[in-house]
Structures are given as structure tokens and as C-alpha cells.
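Note to self: user wants both folds in one dump. Writing first protein now.
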Amino acid sequence: MKNPLAVFRATPGLFGWVMYDFANSAFTTLVVTFIYATYFTKAIAADEISGTVLWSRGVTASCLAVAFLSPVFGFLADRGGNRKSWLLATTWVCIGACVMLATALPGETTKALLWFVIANIAFELGNVFYNAFLPDIATGDSVGRVSGWGWGVGYLGGLLALILALVGFVNPETPWFGLTKESGQHIRATNLLVAAWFALFSLPTFIGLRDRRHAAGKPSTGPLLPTLGGELAAAAAAVRHHRQALLFLAARLLYNDGLITVFAFGGIYAAGVFGFSFSEIILFGIVLNVAAGVGAFAMGRMDDRFGGRKTLLVSLVALSAAALVAVCTDSTRMFWLAGILVGVFAGPNQSASRSLMARFSPPGRESQFFGLFALSGKMTAFLGPLLLGVCTDLFHSQRAGMASVLLFFAAGFALLLAVDEEAGKREGQRPERLPEDGEAGRPLKGGLPAAGGRG
């Protein structure tokens, strides 16, 4: 693409859509993966083993809640044509819960887990509505690149948030804003950084992003509960005719379990097995975010050229190899290599999953299909953290727990081999161009313009 900036100028809402990835990545990077998860196991819980088990249960609880709620909320958003309002509400619930996370002191495990579960549920539900905007933002031949831009910019956001956490809160002898190291105040305050980051950088999203009201998204005046039940039943019946989408969702049901487990316990594993300090974990996260951002940007073009399915298969092979190295090695250098490999291919895996769902989702039912997408990511996502916790407890070994992710990667790879991407796009019957706001059927000139095509 010769001039990516021209694409942003020509595509209304694209900048705001990409910036939401930049904003919300602070939560996954600092809270879920690197800082708060590790702090919980090392300082809030009684010991690292019990902390790992308790954290796995918190992740499990939030995954089960998201699995149940995402299809319902997806229906409600499509029913009213108001994805943006739902996105705003879930965003602020997540921000508020992050503020409360900063108040949990060592020993207050129940309080810490409660606010983490609330924050994680709101974060994941927000992604249902955010991802559902992708088919409106990008055309069929550019959805991979646009999704990759989002993930790449998101990893940049996570990287910058980590750097701020390292420089201002974790490393200095005197942390910023008069914070002290007593009771881990300087570590707990990183949750306030997440809340402020999310609130500030999501503003372009809510200013620039607009709902496109498809016919299926017109507000309904009927009773909510009967309509909800009938529409969900109709959606379930309709999706049975989208065989390739169902196969893909079944594959993602499995391989995403492994990826969620790696994200949720990567920092914990580095601390427990290789003795990483908080500062080393943050540095590890910085390197991984750089690698993931490069991977997401670079492989977005591969996604558009060769397809999301092939991109996913390549990423799963690489992720499996990285996990195997991390489990078997005693060398810190080899663990770093494995972590970088995870970073390079985790971004393309997530980006290609999102773009493939966008290609398969029918017009007017994007939120419902992305609700099912979230369901596939969460319905059995408790199995990965749960199995890791069980194996860690049973063998009293974090290596044994981390080895369980290989089962999920292998099973997802096997199912993904059966997916026919071209058939899935035909089943979705998405138009190559979308109508302008207020128009019916006229081509959208700025979807991704010809000037910003494959050149």
C-alpha cells in the first residue's frame, strides 16, 4: 500500500476504530498478562501455587459469563442498531472496575478477583461490539490488512503503556505521583494507569465511529424478552446454514483456549519457572509487544493475499513450536526466543481470526455473528486455565500446566483444515462495497480506495 494515510482520510471511522485497539490493549497487557496477574500470585495470594489456582478460577468465571452473555448482547445491539452505545457502556464499566482493582490490598483475594472478573467481562463484551464494526469499515479485499492494523496499533498501545508502567511506577526508587512501595501501592496504581489510558485513547472511537443501520438493525417496539428469545432462536437456526462459519468457530473454540491460557499465565510462568522480577516481566512484555505488532502488520497483507485460514494454520504451527520450547527449556535465552516467537505469531492469529469472521458474517447480523465469535472464544475458554491450574496443582509444576496448551493448538489446527474460506464467503454473501450513510445500495467510494490497494 503506497499511502496508508490516504486510506484513513478516505475511510470515515477507520481512525476511531483502530484507536480503540490502541486504548483497550493497556488492560490486556498490564492487568491480564504481565503486571496485575503476577502481582496477584506473588503478593495478594498466600503463595504462587495457590495464587495461580485462584487466578485461573477468576479467568474461568469471566470466560463462562462472556460465553453466556455475548450472543444476547450481540442480538440486542443488532436489534437496535446501537453498537456504539453498548461499546461505550462496556468500556466505562471496565474502566471503573480497573479503578477498584487498585484498592485491593495483599490478602484481599476475593476483592481482587471480584473486580478483575467484572473488568474482564466488560472488556470482552466491548470487543463484541467493536469487532462488529470491522465489516462496515473494510471491504472484502482489505479486511485482513485493516484487522492487522488494529492489532498492530493495539500492540503499540500495550507497549507504550508498559513503558510508562516501567518508568513511572515499577522501577524507580521514588514512583511518580507520591506513590510508595508499601503494600505494593506503586504496583496496584498501574490499574489507575490502565483506566486513564483506556478513557483517554478511546475518545476518538466515540467521536468518529458511527453505526450503520442495516435493515436487520432497525429498532423494534415489541416486548424485549419474547423478541429476544425468538430472534436468538432464529439466529441459531440461520447460522446452521453457514457451515464454514460453524467449522471455523469450532476450530477457534479450541485453539483460542490455548492462546488465552498463554496470555493469562505468560507472566506468571516467567516469574515462577525462570525467576523473572516485575521489571524483567515488563521488559519481556515490551519485547513481545514489539514482535506482535510487527507480526500483525506484516501478516495482514498475507491474510488478504492468501486468506485468513492459511494465515491461521501457519500461526498455529509456530505457536505450538514456541510453547514446546518454553516448556522443555531450562535456558532463559531459549525462553526469550520462545516468547518472541509467540509474539510474532499471536498477533496474526488474532487478527486473521477476526478478519475471517468478518468475511463470513452476513450484512445486518454482524454483532450477532461476532457474539458467536466471542462465544467460541469463551464457551470453553475456562478449560485452558482450568486444565493449567489442575495440572499445576496435580504435578506441583508450572511446566506441566503450561504444556496443556499444546493440546488445544493441535486440536484447533486439525479442525481448521476442514474450513473452506471461499465457500464461507459465499455463504455470508457480503457485498464488495458498502452503502454510504443515508444511501441504499450506492457503492462506497472510500471503503479502502483503489489508490490504496495492493500497489
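First done. Writing the second protein, which came from a different request thread.
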Amino acid sequence: MFDFDTPLPLRDTHCSKWDAVASVFKDLPEQPPVDEVIPMWVADMDFKAAPPILAALEAEVSRGHLGYFTNDRPIAELVGQWMQTHHGWQVDPDWVRFTRGVIEGVALAVGAFSARGDEIIVFSPVYHAFYRKVEALGRVIRESELVLEDGVYHMDLDALEASLSGREKIVILCSPHNPGGRLWSQAELAAVAAFCEKHDLILVSDEIHMDLTFPGQSHLPTGAAAPDSYSRLIMLSAASKGFNTAGGETGFAIIPDPSVRAAIDVVRSAISGTMNRFGMATTKAAFSDGAEWSLAVRTYLAGNFTLWRDRISTLPGIKVMDMPSTYLTWVDFSGTGMDAAEVRLRLGRDARIATNPGAQFGTGGEMYNRFNIAMPRPLMINAIERMEAAFADLQ
């Protein structure tokens, strides 16, 4: 019913993933021809958006008036319904605050609950934008490195507790984890919440990948896993990642506690205006009528991942982390005997593939690369074949 195999003409369309690939290779001594590169870096899907979303945008345009947006209450109610139906968390629409994307939500939390010089805890390796935003606001990143056991990441809260300086104010959790696709268990989420309660920390849970679990898997919101965390919880998410509408720059925060909401509202009023009309239209359409497309795309992504993992993992010294969600695969090159620079050169010059180098994601990511496999399967197979050729000499 939905066609994910036919490529879209995305080059020269102001698409960051396709038209900014030269920036990936700017520090390489030998750069590939940009028009030959397969982009596997920016976290967009190369698929046409769901028909209800396209219809909603067409309706906005055909009306002919593109003015300021107001009355987000009906869409907040849809957020609550989606969270209840698809993620098992009962959310009061009054808890919802819309943002210009999840990273703006991070900035709101950092601005409301910390001061310059305070420390913000992240579990590394983790989404690189956390580092940029926190440091741009004059705060200090405190890394708590994830522990890899049997190919699966785990948080080490005991080690984190032993390292605390007393200047920490916020914990940022990525759930599902990016990179790596890890779905945290109820016990793990409850433990993080209890840690924040013990040390009087605000818990910011970035759950933007919540709608990208593979069929048979489920995402557990932090608020559902740890209802005792409500007094300090800020859950951030969006329809944009699961429904490929990031250009609308629209996300939301779910904040159960009224005093936490009030603090966020103060900062939000200083830096935010009305919401993007088109982003709100796509959010409304996704959460109203997008469930069928969501299941179809997640099924396709799961098939892509199985093929990717099975082929790439046969290359000597290269490991693909298994994952139950997202389309961002985390590939370990540490067994190749190469350093990170040589790996990047082979990926860029020889394979002509644009990736996110693992060092961007902080401590623990140095010998990894992140690959986006949300693309038509024939193109992904092309990328696999390029990888196989670029690393054919491995023994």
C-alpha cells in the first residue's frame, strides 16, 4: 500500500541530508565527488511522508491564508490520546507545551533549572546535539559513560553517584537511545528517576524516537515507568522523527508538575512565539490518522536493519549493535585494527558514504560510526556493497 522502495529526487532540494554532505568530508585529505555520495548521516527518512500528512499540508496551502497559528488545545488532546493508545501513558492535555523541536525543549529545561557553570549529566555516547546546546548555554557536560555488556548498553548509576561534584542540576536521558536504538526497561527508567529524586535533579527524557520501535517491540515512556518522578520530569518528544516531518520544527514537552510547567513557561515566553502552522498541521495529521503508515514504515525499517546487520556483520572486525528500534545503526570498527581516521577515510573516499563519526557522540563512541538506514532498500544494498568493497582487505 505504501511505496518505500522508490527513491525520491532529494538532491538539490534544500534537503540537509543530501545537499550538505560536503560538510561531512571537509577535514578528509581525499574527498569523494559529492554527487556520488550516499548520505547516511542526518536523521531523516528518505521516504514520502504519510498520505494524511501530505493531505493536511495541501489543505493548509489551498486555503490560501498562511498567518499566525493559535489554539493548540485540540492538538494537545491528540498528543494525550496518542500517548495513551500507543504507549500506555495517560497524559492530561494541560501537561503539554509545544516547542520548536525537542532540542528547543532541552534549551528550555536547561534555562529554567540551571545557571551558567552548572553541570548537566548525559549518558555517553549519546545524541551529539545535547553537547552543543548545553555548552552553548554556558553549562558543563558531565558524561556518565554507558557500559557495554554482551553487546547491550547499560547505565552505571553507582559509578555516576561516586563521581558527583554537587554542581549537577539536570539529567538528560535519551529514550529510545540514540545512537544504538536501546529500549530502556521499566526497572532502568525507575532507577534513573530514583537517582534524580535522591540527588534533587530535574529529569529531561528525550523520547523523540518513541514511534520507531520495530513490530513486536514497545516503547515505555519514562512517566509511565516511574510515576513517582512527576515532580521533576520533563518528557520531550515530537511526531517529526516517527513520521519524517522534521522540517516543520515542531515538538512538545509533557510536564506533569505545575511548578515545573510554570518555570518552563517563564523561559518559553521569553524565547518562543507562535507555533509553526505547518508543523502543527503535520503533528495533528500524524496523531489523528498516521497509525497505519507508522506500522508500515516500522516494518520496512526492521527489514532494512536485519539485512544491514546480517551483511555488515560478516566483515571482519566490524560489529553492528543489535537494536529493537530507530533507524540509526551503531557500527563498531574497533576490531579492524584501524584508527578512527582511517575508517573515516575509507568510508568517505572509498565507499562514498556520509556517516556521523562516533566521536561526535562523546566518550565511548570514538571507534563507531552511526549509519542512517531509513532509505529505499535498493539504495541501502548499494551502500552495503560499497562497504564490502571498501573493507574487502580485512582478514
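Dump finished. Worth passing along: The mean pLDDT is 97.
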